[in-house]
Amino acid sequence: MNDKRARVRELAAEHIGKGDPLGWFEKLYQEAERGDAAIPWADLEPNPRLIEFWKAHPLEAAGKGALVIGSGLGDDAEQLAVWGFKTTGFDISKTAIEAAKKRFPKTQVEYVVADMFNPPANWLHGFDFVLEIYTVQSLPEELRAKAIEAISQSVAPGGLLLVIARGREEGEPEGQGPPWPLTRAEMDGFVRAGLTEESFEDYAEPEPPWVRRFRALYKRPAVGP
Ligand SMILES: C[S@@+](CC[C@H](N)C(=O)[O-])C[C@H]1O[C@@H](n2cnc3c(N)ncnc32)[C@H](O)[C@@H]1O
Fold first, then answer.
1. C-alpha dihedral over 138, 158, 50, 176, to 10 degrees?
2. Most buried of 26, 51, 67, 180 (most Cβ within 10 A)?
3. Does residue 30 belong to any structural domain of this protein?
4. Which of 73, 138, 146, 149 to mutate to test the pocket of ligand 1 (most atoms within 8 A of CB)?
């Protein structure tokens, strides 16, 4: 395990042990801001699997609203804005949101500090496109189903949700996370939350860290005439 992940696991274990499973994100971003730690998921570029998805399925973005869950340092949110979405990126970490604003001073993205478990009321069924990359897998098991339900609630009727996450087999130990790879049954929580599954890919990354990943597209059925 590299040092970046070791620190993440140490901080997460410490906070989960104290009954505060979300508190470590802010701590980690603060340490990174001081130069004392690195953020293992922050590649400082849009996720290549998002770009690849977009090339294969470009969406109508003009005039549509997008929400980026756990937007971190902002690269994916910025990319959605470039594609034409009126984009909101939110994160529970104030330091992450401040860092994203600092990195993109001319941004068109609205960056908000918010907790997915207690979102602003007007986000309910509020977005045409919702992007979730690696947030659910960074939460302990007892929060993951709740997170999947909360994320699903932000998708508007007729809207889409793209999820990219580490994957594992049913019954395979989840290992010492975070991240805790998701099972297919956990991913099906998006369907149990009222969305339909439009596509589901299960693949191994062709380069380091060669991990198994799921990329799935869900839709909230449009309301009838
Ligand atoms: C593993 S990181 C992934 C960040 C980004 N999506 C990416 O792909 O690089 C998970 C992010 O979700 C944020 N997060 C965790 N729990 C959250 C919550 N309850 N509400 C909002 N953001 C949360 C963390 O602060 C962190 O930035």
1. 20
2. 67
3. no
4. 138
